[in-house]
Amino acid sequence: MADITFFVEEPDGQRTPIEVPTDMGLSLMEVLKGSDYPILATCGGMALCATCHIELLEGHANDPTDAELDMLDTLFNTTEQSRLSCQIRISELSHGAVLRLRGETN
C-alpha cells in the first residue's frame, strides 16, 4: 500500500497536509469530505454540480474529462488550475500536490 501526502491551502495561506493511501480507489472529493472540508458534492461525484471545485496550485493529476471541462465552463470563478475534485482519483494525484478549495462559497 502506497501513501501520498497532498496539502490544502487554507484561507490564511497555511498548508494543511493530508496523507492518504493510493490503493483504495478514493476520489479527492471523498478524501476532502472525510477530512471535514466543506465540500458539498451535491451530485455525488458525477461532475454535474461543481460544488467540489478546487484549484490545483502545485503538482498534477489526471487530465480532465470532457464532462469536467463542460461543467467548469459554466462557472464564473475558474482559473487555469481549476478542477472538480470528484474527477481526480487519489492514485492519479501527485505526491506533494497543493490545492485550494473553491466550491460554492469560495
Structural class: alpha+beta
Average pLDDT value? Answer: 93
| Tally of alpha and pi helices | 2
What is the strand tally? Answer: 5
Q: Order of strands side by side in the largest beta sheet?
A: 2-1-5-3-4
Biggest β-sheet strands, sense, barrel: 5 strands, mixed
SSE succession: EEHEHEE
Task: Please give a structural write-up.
With 106 residues, the protein is α+β, with helices and mostly antiparallel strands. The protein has a single domain, classed as Beta-grasp domain (Ubiquitin-like (UB roll), Roll), CATH 3.10.20. The chain has helices at residues 28-34, 66-72; strands at residues 3-9, 15-21, 53-58, 82-84, 98-101. The longest helix has 7 residues, at 28-34. It is globular, with a radius of gyration of 13 Å. The mean pLDDT is 93.
